[in-house]
Amino acid sequence: MTSSDTLRFAWRAATAYRLRTGLMVLAMAIGVAAVVVLTALGDGARRYVVGEFSALGSNLVIVLPGRTQTGGVNAGSFITSTPRDLTLEDAAALLRAPQISLIAPLAVGNSEIAHGGRLREAMVVGTTADFIAVRKMGMAQGRFLPAEDLRRASSVAVIGATLRAELFGADSPVGRMVRIGDRRFRVIGVLAPAGQGLGMNSDEQVFVPVAAAQAMFNSNTLFRILAEARSRDRIPAAKTQILEILKTRHDGEEDVTLITQDAVLGTFDRILGALTLSVAGIAAISLCVAGILVMNVMLVAITQRTAEIGLLKALGATDHDIRMSFLAEAALLSLGGAAAGIALGHAGAWGLRLLYPVLPAWPPDWAVAAGIGTALATGLLFGVLPARRAASLDPVQALTRR
Amino acid sequence: MAQIELEGIERVFHLGDTDVHALSHVSLGIEAGEYVAVMGPSGSGKSTLLNLLGLLDRPDSGHYRLEGRDVTTLSPDEQAQIRRERIGFVFQSFHLVPRLSAAENIALPLLLAGVPPRERDDKVRRALSDFGLDSRADHRPDQLSGGQRQRVAIARATIMAPALLLADEPTGNLDRATGRDVTRLLEALNAGGVTLIVVTHDPVMGARARRRLLMADGAIERDVVGSGGAPG
Hints:
The structure holds two protein chains of two kinds.
Chain A: H1 3-16, H2 18-57, E1 60-65, H3 88-94, E2 100-115, E3 118-127, H4 131-134, E4 139-142, E5 156-159, H5 161-168, E6 177-180, E7 183-191, E8 196-197, E9 200-201, E10 205-209, H6 210-217, E11 224-229, H7 235-249, E12 256-260, H8 261-304, H9 306-314, H10 319-355, H11 365-391, H12 395-400
Parallel strand pairs in A: 3-10, 5-7
Antiparallel strand pairs in A: 1-11, 1-12, 2-3, 2-6, 2-11, 4-7, 5-10, 6-7, 8-9
Helix pairs in contact in A: 1-10, 2-8, 2-10, 2-11, 8-10, 8-11, 10-11
Chain B: E1 4-15, E2 18-30, E3 35-39, H1 46-53, E4 61-66, E5 69-70, H2 76-86, E6 87-90, H3 102-112, H4 117-130, H5 146-158, E7 164-168, H6 176-191, E8 195-199, H7 203-208, E9 211-216, E10 219-225
Parallel strand pairs in B: 3-8, 3-9, 6-7, 7-8
Antiparallel strand pairs in B: 1-2, 1-4, 4-5, 9-10
């Protein structure tokens, strides 16, 4: 018997008993759909969280002066080492690292900002033009600090949304002069409200060129350097390069600490990934149940078709032919169920996306493949026993029974 | 050399504690093209003999040579191949596959033999017209009369051009007139050269055969070669 004939024969058998086949396919479909929808939900949640983190700048590497060590007392602990400060030159040097696309040095201090008789305490952040790109912030009005030499202290400022409201009320601040400490700055832009991030509320900050901030606070050190790696995958490489460059510049001493959001993100990614896998596992149990149903249905089919099996043997079917035709039938039922299940699952995921538009509930490709694979595997696995039983029937007894 | 040679065939069924000798010491030779009726009361072993001749059953001892080849020692797959190519079965209850059309039922042996679809269709079409079933090709068995069903079954049994046609009460489920038609059909096939072995209760049908084997208690009681009523 050729394989195409076996398939066609099995197809005729599967389609001849509509109710049985329909119920069977439905059971398999529910199992596969459960896998698809639940993994869509789990993976959607994972992608949602990762997406939120990315909005904060997930490629960010934060350079802090000083080495924070966790660990016990060792010989090195007794040698006092005063960490070198981070300087503008350090920041400029980091731009040479090939894995780093943007840097934003930060010089931070508190001062008062005044306009038209209103005065307020504010955090002054000295930085560069790339800061807004590194932190993925937006402008509400005007523009951010101009791109210029790090050492140039232009008298321009960008203020946060809260400051704007408190100092200017309903007026447009762009082009107006403010006094920060004892210097006067021209306001060139207002940041869009962003809220809390990295422990600082940018809505209550005023941004000036880094050199201006250093002059204001009479210091030549940096609070931090924000560096952006070219992609998430390149963060480890970027960290190594940053350490190397700073080590060379700091007389071979590794006296900086690097923090990445990626570490936090990675943990979330893993937790939610595991969660997705476990719900997929739970859903796979329903596939197993469907597999047992396939077996039951096939056993019933063999009882119903005992005389037919006897006839096929009398007509010269080998045991192999009979086994294959029943296995093919089980496979067809499972595949039909899997296809219906994928359709059902995608419809379910679509419904989820309609219900929760923020959740990117797309079933991952691996889940769809695993759903089909498991359906087929269980169908075949649970089809083997009935198929063997059919093939081992005694033709004489099979022919006389009906 | 005879087409069928049985030699000291024994077949014992174990029913509980008792052994039932369905066939004992059966030795028999049948030439190619013969028309044999196997007759006898129920339980006399005639169906067992037919199943054995059709390789659906194995003897407990003895030898069965079909066309010079000892078939009792063959593997199940080799026996299946012989059933497929050399033997045709006709049953009392027709044994048509209910979900398949008449044409598809006739095509089953070709399907099992792996004959390509085009050649298969040609053969089935010829068989349908030979057996007067042209207009019934697409009908399922439940849409056919008893006589038509048995004709489909006979067409299926002969589609592979077997050397041996085994019929178990072929007219048992048919009325007298249709039964006569089916008998004539089988006899016409026999006239074409096929060895025909019929198990029957019906003395009228038995009387038409040229050779009658009368069985009792698993043994051949009488082997009568008469003129018979069959044409040709």
